[in-house]
Specification:
The structure is a single chain. It contains 15 helices and 15 strands. The chain is α+β, with helices and mostly antiparallel strands. The chain starts with 7 loop residues before the first strand and ends with a strand. The relative contact order is 0.17.
Length: about 450
Amino acid sequence: LPAFYANIVLLNVSNLPFRLQKLKEMFISKFGSAPKFYVRAPGRVNLIGEHIDYCGYAVLPMAIEQDILIAVEPVKTQVVQLANTNSLYLDFSTSVNNIQINKTKPQWHNYFLCGLKGIQEHFGLNNPTGMNCLLDGTIPPSSGLSSSSALVCCAGLVTLRANGKTLSKVELAEICTKSERYIGTEGGGMDQSISFLAEEGTAKLIEFSPLRATDVRLPSGAAFVIANSCVESNKAATSHYNIRVMECRLATKLLSKSKGLDWKKMLRLHDVQTKLGVGLEEMLTIVEEVLHPEPYSTEEICKCLGISLEELRCQILSQNTQDVSTFKLYQRAKHVYSEAARVLEFKKICNEAPANAIQLLGELMNQSYISCREMYECSCPELDRLVDICLQFGAIGSRLTGAGWGGCTVSMVPTDKLNTFLKNVRKAYYQTDVQRLALEKNSLFATKPGRGALVFVEA
């Protein structure tokens, strides 16, 4: 893929789009000078393939219109000053030579610092450029639409541009995936990849090792609708997400050991399948044979692997999961292998476009949701209620999207039923609750595949 500067958009200085013009005026008011460039990175909705990217499996997201937009001025002082158009997010400044990321407090500026640090370390920048930055975001925070990863990606691209460096989209995605882990989340790379690799009008099958993106044309007779449960879910603020990552890692170790593989080198469930050279259906059979449905205690895991509790905690578990006493391995592995198969089937149906494609895709989305709820246990009562409402009022398929435990659902709705669907969901879910009603304007909307990250420069 070309260096990212192929994605620079030149703008007529006398006719800036309204949002950029407003951001420019606020920047000048804040810093006393004009920004030199702007960077945009979109949020995303994952259509199918939940919690499997960090297991090495392909996912199927698309970029959305909502985004993070940053106005930037490189400065001679080696200080980065961050401000936000939303007054709820406080200003922050730090030396670019002393980046400290606090894992215990996932504040907004720490995500910017992740992207900044990732680019600095990749290039070994000893004398990085200071910057004044003003951020404007339209992605609802903690909604499962990847606001945090969009900010990391935006910051990475800001730092790249400010320091006069170039990278391909794939390289940028891989660096930003690694650098977001500075915040403590053991993510898999879907969010960063779609943020950079997205193209207007098409969803993408994102595959890993090596990273690549393939166009997936969605059926023309259906719209995808995002509905926010209005329950915030910040995956860096709790251990829910990392516990699931560790459960999949532990399942990988036990499955590998049972098959005589070098389990110490195996990290992802995909690695087991690759080493054994079998299909996903056979992996599901192996899970049934090897793992038991009852939770595993740390003592049992240690006994199975022939290691001490200290070795388990220090060599396998993440920092915020070391005190967890039981892990569900059977359920998590079952979800991952079955979800990976659903992703491939979803792409196949989109490619072949049979007459009943919308019905078949809806069934896959519904199966995905049931697996997320029952096998992965990453739903919540509000998401369950919202999925039920969406299906009741005409969605062919509906599921949670993003990490879960709150955030959004994505539903596939026949285009001829879209207006009635939106009206009924609004009435049934948002207008029955004062808090939800206040957030309704930005909580329910149809979306189309959008563009990936861009740099804007005034011509």
